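Key idea: predict the complex, not the pieces.
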Amino acid sequence: MPADQVGRTIVRIAHEILEKTEELDRLALVGILTRGAYLARRLADHIGEFAGREVPVGELDISLYRDDVAARGSLTVRSKLTQPEVRGTNLPFDVDEKIVILVDDVLFTGRTIRAAIDALFDYGRPARIQLAVLVDRGHRELPIRPDFVGKNLPTSQDERINVRLREVDGVDEVVLEAVRDE
Amino acid sequence: MNKDLLSIDDLSREEMESILATARKDFLDLSRRDIKKVPTLRGRTIIDLFYEKSTRTSTSFELAGKRLSADVINVKADSSAVGKGESLKDTVLTLNAYAPDIIVIRHPHVGAPAFIARYTDAHVINAGDGKGGHPTQCLLDIFSLQREYGELQGLKVAIVGDILHSRVARSNIAGFRKMGMEVTLVAPPALLPRGVETLGARVSHTLDVLDDVDVVYLLRMQKERHGSTILVPSLREYIARYCVGRRHLKRGQKVLHPGPINRGVEIEAELADSGENLILQQVEAGLAVRMAIMYRIIVDAAALQDTAGARAVQAVAD
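Result:
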């Protein structure tokens, strides 16, 4: 997915969120760190522009809520720790009674979203939680489905989806790569 | 991190920075939430084994474990089978039968944490061993200093008081130097350990040197460890020469103390009540830092095991 398509997709999701949300005053976007947070920011900017009102945006760090912390198969945790992120959870609004749209770049097993929902509930009691993702690559391991999808990308288990965003990677693109044997 | 945290020497500067970054990012703000708990160590068992009196260290470890959702058991020597003559080894073998994930130990004898590490598979964390060391105190002190001063490289600190009996001084001299700080020890000669010149710190016998430092770290006079030896001619004389008050401080100079404080002995009451000390910030830091240590000691070990497992699989495949 090239840069202009990524941009258009985000605009379309923003329109869909606007169209499907009746009480805009209760809307809040929460991006899952790292790339989900940038997507949430962009979506909020678009929605703010289209609707003429500011939409609160937050960032959620789910590392303490993962189901594979301290379990075998936690290499990802290790790699996260060796390059510690400076940013943690930041929700500059009251979560209670909000319509929260969780935003992530890629939806895969659904485990990250499960963790994000748990984390969110420790900050308050939202009226509703919905899910927006740039790419849905399938292979769900939990009963979780997105409400807003940028693109459905059927993949095999051993392929990798790389979402790059200009804020962190200098360029907007979505690339499907085969995982090479190391 | 290694399997155990027995001494501050077990950690490199990078590891210390990394643990403190975890404390800052993940745990410091937790106290401001209504739900002050994360599910990270759900189902894990932590045993706090305390053979010495302690308020802040034991409550801090207990609360840290609970806020990580672990099951925490406190064993205090005065109310356990230890009073019936059970040896440390037998107590630990007994507790190990519950398959704990972490054992936190405070003990009057140097080396007790390393000793029990031989008899348990749990991660052992030293919460103070006699005059030996107190690595978690050292980390929380560095954390408090970072919050106040930012970068610590070149920061000058004076550690004042009963250095001879202080495990905190021992850990902090090593830890502060590792962070690039310059350490000066201030005490009467009788309250300095033999071989003090090998510790890599300047030594002074008067409070005059406080003019040359950025931070003052006060230690409690540990009368209970002096035994029958008379180390200070009189407490009154000690107070006259070494009790620190606001009048000794320059603008911007902050005072730390590991607690418990003895008002009017090492710290004047007015200073103890003033905004120039960071004592309560240290307590707050202690909780976040101990959560980070327990989280990392478990996660790092699991990741290590995982890497070893992956290598073994790879070896079989090859």
